[in-house]
Amino acid sequence: MKIRLEDSFVVPFERSFDAHYGLEYLSAGEGEARGRVVVSAAHLGASGTVQSGVYAAIAESLASTGTAVEVVPGGLVPSGLSNATYVVGDARDGVLEAVARCRSRSALEWIWDVEIAPPGEAPTALATVAIAVRTVRPKTEV
Fold first, then answer.
1. Cα 76 to the chain's mean position, in Å?
2. DSSP assignment letter at 89
3. Sequence ranges of the domains in the chain
4. Which class is 5-135 in CATH?
5. In Å, how far are 30, 58, 63, 85, 133 from 76, measured between CA atoms?
6. Please, is 70 exposed, middle or buried when counting C-beta atoms within 10 Å of its C-beta (0-12, 13-18, 19+)?
7. Which of 4, 6, 115, 133 falls 20 to 30 Å from 77 in CA-CA distance?
8. What is the pLDDT at residue 122?
9. Which conformational region is residue 14 in: left (phi greater than 0), alpha (psi within -120 to 50 degrees), or beta?
């Protein structure tokens, strides 16, 4: 069964942080998620290169969304546990493409490796992201 990305979003995408910085989802499901960002001046730091937080946001979002499209239909909820993003190159303009691959999944957490790079070039950032998978607990009256 093909799952639509939009069905996994609690907040409409156009109101999300990912929309604000320009993440475009290309695909998600079956242990992989892909996206891209067109680099603009808003992404650059004082050095004139893409800020590390942009890379971390891309990695976190793809790992969370890749998990969500597979667990939300079963009544589970993904939540970020950790994000180790390493900037290993410089990007100043153009497009950044990202691919996240699930390397390990258990009942409680999924581990993702993410590579972010200009098309056809060496990575400018590498990340490992851990996503918790939990059941939704009903709210209790106080």
1. 18
2. S
3. 5-135
4. alpha beta
5. 16, 22, 15, 26, 6
6. buried
7. 115
8. 98
9. alpha
The letter for the amino acid at 54 is: V
Among the listed residues 43, 12, 38, 10, the one whose alpha carbon sits nearest the alpha carbon of residue 23? 38
Which whole-number Å values give the CA distances from 104 to 1, 70, 79, 138, in the listed order? Answer: 22, 14, 16, 28
pTM strictly above 0.85: yes
Residue 56, Cβ density class (10 Å: 0-12 exposed, 13-18 middle, ≥19 buried)? buried
Q: Which residues are paired to 115 by β-bridges?
A: 99, 126
Q: What's the one-letter identity of residue 132?
A: A
What residue has token string 């609690």?
10
In the DSSP assignment, the letter for residue 108 is S
10-residue mean pLDDT profile of the chain (142 residues): values are 56 88 95 98 97 98 95 92 98 98 97 98 98 84 65
